[in-house]
Amino acid sequence: MRFTYFWPGWAIALGILIAIGVTTFVYLRIVRPLPPRHTFLLIALRIGAVAILLGCLLAPVIVEKRDITPPTHLAVLVDTSQSMQLTDTGDVSRLNQVNELLFGDSDGEGKSTLLHALTDKFEVHVYPFGTGLHPMASVAAQAQRFKPSDALTDIGSAIKQADAAWQGQQCAGIVLITDGSHNAGAFPMAALVALQMPVYAIGVGDIAPPKDIQIQRIDTAPVAYTGHEHLIRVTLAQTGYTGQTTRLALREVNSQRLVSSTTLTFAEGSQQIEFRLTPERQGNFQYTLTLPTLDGELTGENNAKTFALKVVKAKLNVFYLEGRPRWEYTFLKRALERDTDIELTSALLSKRPASESVLHRFDGYYPVTSGAAGAWRGTGPRPTMQGTEASRETGPRPTMQGTEASRGTGPRSTMQAAGAAAIRRFPETREALSKYDVLILGDITAEHLTAAQQRLIVDFVETAGHAVVFLPSQNAFGRKGLGTTELARLLPVSIPVTGCGMSEAEFTVQLTQAGTFHPMLQLSSANLASNRNAALWRNLPALSRLFRGFQLRGGASVLLESGNREPVMIFQRAGLGKSLLFASEGLWNWDFGVSNFKDARYLTLYPQFWAQALRWLGTTHTDENRLYLTTDTSTYATGDTVRVTAQVYSETYQPQADAKVQIEVTPPTGEPFQLRTTTVHENINEREGHAFALRDAEKDSREGQVGEENRYTARFEVWEKGTYRIRAMSSTGGTDRTEIYVQPQLAELEAPQLNEALLQRLASRTGGAYFAIADAEQVPESIAFVPEPVFVNTERDIWAHPLILILVVGLLGTEWVLRKRNGLT
Length: 825
Prior knowledge:
Blueprint: E1 2-3, H1 9-28, H2 36-57, E2 60-67, E3 73-79, H3 94-103, H4 114-119, E4 123-129, H5 155-165, E5 171-178, H6 189-194, E6 199-203, E7 212-219, E8 223-225, E9 230-239, E10 245-252, E11 258-265, E12 270-277, E13 283-290, E14 304-312, E15 316-322, H7 327-338, E16 342-349, E17 383-387, H8 388-393, E18 399-400, E19 413-414, H9 430-433, E20 438-441, H10 451-462, E21 467-470, E22 493-494, E23 501-503, E24 509-511, H11 513-516, H12 531-538, E25 545-548, E26 551-552, E27 557-562, E28 567-574, E29 577-582, E30 584-585, H13 589-592, H14 605-618, E31 627-631, E32 636-637, E33 641-648, E34 661-666, E35 673-676, E36 693-695, E37 698-699, E38 702-706, E39 711-717, E40 722-730, E41 735-743, H15 756-766, E42 769-772, H16 779-782, E43 791-797, H17 802-821
Helix pairs in contact: 1-2, 2-17
């Protein structure tokens, strides 16, 4: 016992002496004589009551030590992923083995269970887990049986969440019951060890992999091009079927049409099979790869995979036919080859026979390589073709070397033609020529093309709706030039019989009123017809030659002119197609002549002009979409995140960053939801749309963000099997669509065997222990956890106890009764 209010000892003694003195004095002065025995008793009663009251003023309390050691918690994590429904031996699945271990037999005959043994020593909390931790409402209810649910196993996250749930509490450890099939990213061993939480792992399943075949992965670009071979690479895996033969089939989902198939023999481990698909029409398609189910196979669910493929028009195909070597050809060819959205095929014509091996000093034409001998038909000279891919990869490009004989007529050169064997002749049929979108004709004369080939080009433009670009020189504008051919009807000008005149005085160009607003000539990123764009054209390096003496046809538009207002660049519609003519030479100087410009903007104007001009020319009235929508991959499984990218282009087919793009996603079931993106300079990330229920309480999460320049990206998670339709809409008027197919998550079946090595390593490094499920009864004894006792001192007030009041009242009451019996007042 101790006193809450401490007084000095002399004060307490003084108080008692005063109480004794006052009481004795009062009773000794009583007139009426009392027996000494009564006097002493009355004084004692009064002093006792006063002493008790004085003691209460000191607030006495009784101090008691109480044991408040908290209960020791133990988390039991049970794997309820899809792999736990597999049956290894007998007819009992892995998860049913766990149910019997924890709760006893389903008929209730099981008496002693692991759960009962653990609850005798610890405060047990049972959590099923898969992709995350799922709290269990009543851990003691034996009627509660686990069922497989989750499509992935994330052991690391489950342990982290269980540790966080009881952080600050006394926890003996974590009992982990699983097959060890962690398939949610890299296993976070170091992070789990840092938790300092012992893990007692119980392995369920067989360490030997079951017999199974599976389509493990499909690698293919999500976008294919019409008429171009598209590679599909399939990764197969198998266990137990090495050397066995089967058939892999590729089918289109909607029509179930067999696209391709191959017979294969399973090799040890995994192997890759390639399919090559050549789409013929544009659209969104879905394809399925399937393997038959073999005898004794674990499951057939992983024998098929579906992927989506968006087929679009191929890259812009450009055919450049040049009549002689000149700088125009060199610089334009190089600029177009560097454009990743243009597929260029270029050709140089030669007057020399095939056996000629040395360049003639004065004629300025290439000799034909032996690979092209005999390939050119007709009366004209044979061309030497340079395919784009071949010239880039398998051989050097032409090397221009100036000679003494050049003297202003263009450089002499030698050539090594790498693509001669691949493309041997000018297309001679409409089908062969129609693969190109734009045809560029250089300094061509009547001798270079046969009448049939000329008519083919006319049909290519006027009937098929394609475009032709004329880059003539003195030969094409001469007496035997284009004016005497069938191609004259495509020209936006009429060439006189005697040919055109030529001025060799240098000049700069300027935009006409029509050119100011034309999409091909917008070099500035500012609005159309801006002063900045006009200044860029005026400041370009001068051109070397200007042809004059021709007459504009009706309907022709002059887009560029010289300072004397003479036509330089002329455009005209030709039937269903387009025709563009340059009445000048030296356009290559727009690339070469800007090398010393201080404004770096000019360094890219030449390739920019040609890129947007050819794209505009190669775009028909039925293909003027300037919004392109793609996804990051072609295959998705439930739980994956889809990344959608929309690219926006302006009227000049340059990246446009000031558009607003809205993306709408239609899931297999439920209402469409929208993803809205904003421009990068607004620095806004918005999330818009409504959530819809997909699986239990899970919601579809989506997030929009802005990429660089003209790339707008959005992300959303998919939790439902089936086809998702995605549509993008731009504020500039463009729209595009694509589809993705989401299939069930089958990662649980890729390596379903017991990963005993992982569980042993986890238990060892965290200070726990590993047990097979047959030895699970040893777990309670193995958890050697000695809790630290916790005691607390508690105080119990004595002065406020009812017995104190009863005692004081009793003493004073007894005194009062004795006084009355002795006749005292």
